[in-house]
Structure prediction request, 512 residues.
Amino acid sequence: MTRAPFVALSLAVVFALILVLLTLGGCSPKQQNKVQSLDDIATARIGIFEGSIYDQVADELYPDAPKLYYKTAADILTALQTGKVDCMFVNRVSAEQVMREIDGLNYLDEYLGYEDLAPIISPNRAELRQEINEVLAEMKDDGTLEELQQKWLYASIEGVTLDDYELSGENGTLSLATGSDNTPFALIGENGEIVGYDIEFMMIFASRKGYALNIENMNFAGMLAAISANKYDLAATGITITPERAEAVLFTDPTATVPMVCLVRDESSASSSSFIEYISDGIQSTFIYEGRYRLIVLGIGVTLALTALSAALGTVLGLLLFRMKRSRLRAPRLFAAVIDKLTGGLPAVVILLILAYMVFGSVPIGGFWVAVIGFSIIFAAGFSETMLVGVDSVSDSQTEAALALGFKRGEAFRLVVLPQATRTIIQLYSGQLAELLKGTAIVGYIAVDDLTRASDLIRSVTFDAFFPLVASALVYLLIIWLMVALLRAVEKKTGPGRAKRARKAIEALARQ
Prediction:
C-alpha cells in the first residue's frame, strides 16, 4: 500500500473509532444526580473554573467537598455531563445561557450568593477608571445600562449583534483584553467579531469619551498578569471583583451584580435525539452556524505560520548554539549550557509568559511574535543537540582521514562529516518539527488564536467538546504527516547525493 492511501485509511479508522467510543458512551448508563439541594453539595464533587471566585466560595461554604479544577467553563460542563463532577458553580446569567444550548442541566433554586462584575484597569491608569465610572453613572441614570442588561444578560442572545458606535479615537486608542469564551459577556459573533455585554459596554464608553478600541482576545489565565504588567489598558469579560485581585489591578464600579448558582444534571429536562441527529446538529453548530469554520481555518493559518517562522529562526539560532557548544572558548560553551538548562528545565508555557509579561511587558509587540521568539529559542536548543547527535554519529576516523589528506578542519567538517551526518539530522529534525507544531497549542495564554484556541472558542459557544476537538485532532494529524513526508522525501533526495559528493571531494584531494 502506498503512503497516501495508508494515511487516509488511518485517519478514517481514527475517526471511526472515536464515533464508536462516542456511541458506547451514549449507551452507557447515566449517573444519577446526587445534588438535589445546597445541603447535598457538602459531599459532592464540585467543578471549579481555575482562578475564579467560585474556588473561594466553595472553601467558605463547603470546605470538605472535593474540588476539581478546570481551565475553561466548557471543560467543566463536559465533566458535569459525563458525571466526572456532580455540580458546577456559575453565575445565573451564564447558567441560563448554558441551559438554552444543553438539555439535561438545571440550577438549584437557592442562591450561593451574589457577585459583582466589573472591568479591570491597568494600575497606572487611575484616570481611566474615573472616566469609566462617570460614563457608568450616566448609563444608569439614562437607562442605557438596564437596556444593555436586558439585551445580553436576561434574554436569548441567539442572533444578537452589537449596535453601531462611532469610535472617533480623538483622545487616543485603548487596548482592551478580553476572553471570548465567556458567554454572554464576551463571545464570537456571527461575522467572527467579538461581541457581548462587556464588549458593548466598553464601546459605549469609548464612543462617549472619544476613544478607539483595540480588542485583543486571550486566555483568562493570562489576563490578570497582562493587566498587572501594563500590557493592556483594561480588560473586560465578566470579571468578578475580589479583594485579592484589587491588590494587583484597579476595578471600576460594578457594571452588573448577578446571583451565583449551582448547576447540576437534571434528567427530567433532557430531550432524546437519535445518534444521526446528534451528528447532524453537531456539525451544523460547530462548523456551519455563523460561519464558525472560519475560526478553524484562521487557526490553521496561525499555527502553520507560527511553526514555520519558529522553525526557520530556530534552525539558524540552533546552528549558532551548535558552534558555541563546539567552541574551544569557555564563554560560548557556558552561554549555550545556560540556554539548554533554561529551555530544558522550564515548561514552554512558563517561558512564553515570562517573555510576554516580563521581558516584553512594556514593549508594543503582539503575542504572535512573542510566541515566535519563545518557540525559536526552544527549538534552537533542541536543534543544536540534534546537530551534535548527527555529527557524533560519524566516526572520528572520517575527520582524521580528511585531515591526513590535507583538508582543513572546517573543510573536513563541511565536505566529509556533515554530508554523512545529514541523514541522521533530518530524521531527528522531522520529529522536532512535529513536537514544535504540537507545542504551539499553548499560545492561547498570550492572546494568539491558533488552531487549539479556535477549538476552545467554538466549544465555549456550543458547549460540545466532541466535534471541535475531533476536528483539531484530525488537522494536527494531517499536518504532521505531510510535514514528515516532505522531510522524508528531502532525506531520500539529499542523503545519498551528499555522501557521494563527500567521496568525490576526498578522491579529488587524494589525486592532488
